Amino acid sequence: MGVDVFVGFVKLLNYSLLTFCLLFISACAAESLHQPIQPSQMHACNKNFSSMFKIIEVHSTSGLVRFALWTECRQENIVLDGDIKNLGDEYIKFEDFLISVKANTANGIQFFQIPISAFDLPPGNSMRALKHVPESAINVVGWEIKPQSPVFRYHIKLIKPARSNELSYKDNFISISFKPNYKQLAFQLRNESSKPIRVLWNEASFVDVESKAHKIIHKGIKLINKEKEMTSTTIPPEAILDDLVAPIDLTELVDNKWKTRDILPRQKIGELKGKCFSFFLPLTIGDMKKEYLFKFEIDAIPVRQP
Q1: What was the pLDDT predicted at 305?
Q2: pLDDT score for 233
Q3: Is the pLDDT of residue 135 over 50?
Q4: What are phi and psi of 148, to 5 degrees?
Q5: DSSP state of 2
Q6: Which of 14, 78, 233, 293 has its CA 20 to 30 A from that of 60?
Q7: Using one digit for the tens of pLDDT, what is the confidence trace for 63-82?
């Protein structure tokens, strides 16, 4: 009987010691997971390594993109880690960029070109950015980022009825100035005559960069009524009309929301240099009918990166 009690006591003691050891090991492991890696624990590249953090904003064909990156020494390599954020108002389907990294090496300062991409990125959203710097780098001194392809912005000139870099025109009857954007053509029209002017919206049209004519809709017309006849707008002498036009066939109802496609493409702007679009605007001035064709020419100017 005494022997059995003694054996049982030994087994219980062994079990308790084993449980204590396991708990102690688990606690140590958990603590080590939450402890930051100290410089002395890192790879030898940290002997001359110092971390850097940098935010760079880059213009792409889809808009402005922000890179927030820092350097770390991780698993015997220096890495660039951080995120890419879409600061524009357009969905980024796929954009290629190039990181130019300046680094100290055993052979002195060298530059490394590292490709990186942003993709499937809605406006305001971010994605992870992680890139390894070549092993020969001892320390990163700095880096710059630029698009893989040149990025252009629109520069538009009025070429008919008269040339104007300011996109304005004036004669004895009207003065008009334009502000085109990706989705519509805004304008301000002043009656310079002594007679009332009527804008004949139903006869007006927009001709795109592919020379296709589109019936237009103007400000104040509900999209649900875009196919209906539009009443003319009267402008008294010396009065001003602020309005805008857009092609009606580029506006459609998708999932109970109105979506308008661009009249000026946002992609491959550089390829549109020399292309034209126009706005046909028929008016009556008193009893006289006068038709204006405003023709615009596209010039593509390379975007200067911040």
Answers
A1: 59
A2: 96
A3: yes
A4: -65, -35
A5: H
A6: 78
A7: 789 999 998 887 778 899 99
Contact 90, 182 (CB under 8 A): no
- Tokens 């890179």 correspond to what residue? 67
Q: How far is CA 157 from CA 169, 216, 284, in A?
A: 12, 21, 26
The sign of the CA dihedral 195, 164, 293, 216 is negative
- How many other CB atoms sit within 10 Å of the CB of residue 99? 20
- 220 vs 24, more confident: 220
**Residue 38 clears pLDDT 50, i.e. is over it:** no
Q: List % helix, strand, coil for the chain (3-state, nearest 5).
A: 15, 50, 30
The DSSP code sequence of 136-179 is: TEEEEEEEEEEESS--EEEEEEEEESS-BTT-EEE-SSEEEEEE
Q: Token pair of 82, please?
A: 């951080």
pLDDT attached to residue 272: 85
Q: How far is CA 55 from CA 93, 112, 118, 126, 151, in A?
A: 22, 19, 16, 14, 20
The domains found in the chain, sorted by start residue, are 41-147 (2.60.40.1620), 152-302 (2.60.40)
Residues making up the chain, counted from first to last: 306
Residue 144 burial class via C-beta count within 10 angstroms: exposed 0-12, middle 13-18, buried 19 and up: middle
Query: 189 forms bridges with which residues in the sheet?
Result: 176, 241
Token duo for residue 79: 């890495």
* DSSP string over 243-254: EEEEEGGGEEEE
Mean pLDDT of 239-245: 96
> Distances from the Cα of 252 to the Cαs of 1, 209, 220, 246, 306, in angstroms?
92, 20, 17, 12, 36
Torsion sign over Cα 261, 266, 268, 270: positive
Centre a 10 Å sphere on the Cβ of residue 46 and count the other Cβ atoms it contains: 19
pLDDT at 44 over 50: no
Interval 210-229 mean pLDDT: 88
Model-wide pTM > 0.85: no
Are 71 and 132 in contact by the 8 Å Cβ rule? The answer is no
Q: Which residue has the tokens 């092609």?
A: 247
